[in-house]
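hi! just following up on the protien thing from before. the input was this:
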Amino acid sequence: MKILRSVACLLNKVYQPIKENGRFFFFMYLIGVLVTYEELPRDNPDACVYGNLWLELFLDLYVVCLLLTFIPMRVRRWIRAFLYVIAYATTMADVFCWEKFQSTLNPSMLLLVGETDGREASEFFSSYFSADLLFSGVGLVLLIMLIHILCAFWGKVRMQLPDKLQKSYAVLCKGFNRLQPVLGALSLGLLVWSACTSAHNKKEMVQMFSMDTIGSVEHELTTSDCAQFYLPVYRLAFSIFANELASQQIDRLIEAKDKVKVDSCTFKSPNIVLIIGESYGKHHSQQYGYFMPTTPRQIKLQKSGLLVPFSDVVSPWNLTSFVFKNVFSLHVVGEKGEWCDYPLFPELFRKAGYHVTFITNQFLPKAKEAVYDFSGGFFLNHPELSQAMFDTRNDQLYQYDSGLLDDFDKKEKQQSTNHNLIIFHLIGQHVAYKQRYPSDRRHFHADDYTNKRSDLNVSERSVLAHYDNAILYNDSIVNQIVKRFKNQDAIVIYMPDHGEECYEGNRGFICRKHSAAIDYDLARFEFEIPFWVYCSKKYVANHPEVFREIKAAKNRRFMTDALPHMLLYLAGIHTKDYHAEYNILSSKYDERRPRLLKNTTDYDKLVEAKK
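and the predicted 3d structure came back as:
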């Protein structure tokens, strides 16, 4: 009998952490199960990564409850409250991302948040937060939180109950206490079982947080999700860790900057203009066969014979920050080393003697003490790197891209030189589309799509009309930029950072799926982009051989990570960092180089498999 009492006492102690933190354990377990049910595959049980999820969740919560028992109750209440805020906030954010983008919290998603300024955040909320969220997984999390809050007042409510009900409740609690040894035995069994089944995943989690190189982080950012981290709070912690580790790229870029060397420069092209658009899939360009007249001005330039559209161009990423890394660095995907070990092409232009202007409607220079800001332009905004790349920058953002034109006109009068590299970075068609063009420039309406897109409802056709209106407005902006250089010896290159989905086919989706696995459809709509080169009449007359090379190259395969090598060639800059096999205009261009999307998926193999 003494032995049985000892065993019962031991089992009571095993169950004690759960008993003392019962409400915490129950509701945290409930939202853990909910988020998994919402996000893991339901149609294929074998695809479930976490077959032992309920066990691992039990183990993790038990450990937290055990630690809480060592803390005095007056402090424990505040710690639990803090944990509640973190758990509910990350769960709602995670489920929201899944509902809207089929992506959980991950380093790329956190980076995307860092790229968003106050204006974009307001537009994002107006675009994505609607009443239907209350009937989704987000609404369920809110319902659980509401029930949890009501339960917190149970103690006060119980004291107001009639004596008979209070006695019944006391009897129930007494009976439940008698079951503690049984519950303790059950808890012990579950702990042993969960420790065995979760060991492998816990080992992988430790390995993830042990990463100490930028390359390993970059590789992890290309995965579909942080698969080892089954709870939103784990995914958030790893995302912060990964992006913090990635901030070391600044130091590597500064080292690379100090090694920049230009052997000579012929200034072959006196004025080189690069226009970088935003969120523009080629399948909404009239120039590439879209059924709506979204690019009439560019088509007119094409008919003049001076604008040459390229037919087979893709972006290396569908996230602005990673596109800018690849496009600005002399490194190309698949080459040895990392992007931050190579010079940035504006540095070479400045070193060669070009006046470099950067006019952007998304990034502004940071204060001197700023180091890393998680934004897509973090390396462009770093004071030391910005000074090494640019002679002239704008210091103001505008509601519409037309503001950049006025800004540029003022700066050109003050700082024009004989040799110029001018980079325009537009807000373009960044979601929310309705706010990307002035109201008096609205041309397309929902009714215009009734016949062509009868599969969409009125609201969806309205969003589609806004997107196409933004593209039409963008057409006017790039045309105005071209006009400013049509009488000069100038070449203008246009490319958006990446594509964009706006109810493509039957996908029923807008924006981009930043962390989804890349299949043919995603590659087509989010990575295929418009790309063209315009040469002024004076440029064609002075550089007929370059113009011939441009026309000869228009159907070659190309990925924009190699763009700097084309730019160096156009400038006549000779440096060890230039490679002709990456320059699409060169006779030595390697057209068979694998075009790896997100450094993982061969675009051309996807296309071949689809044929």
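The chain has 25 helices and 15 strands.
The first strand starts at residue 264 and ends at 265.
cheers
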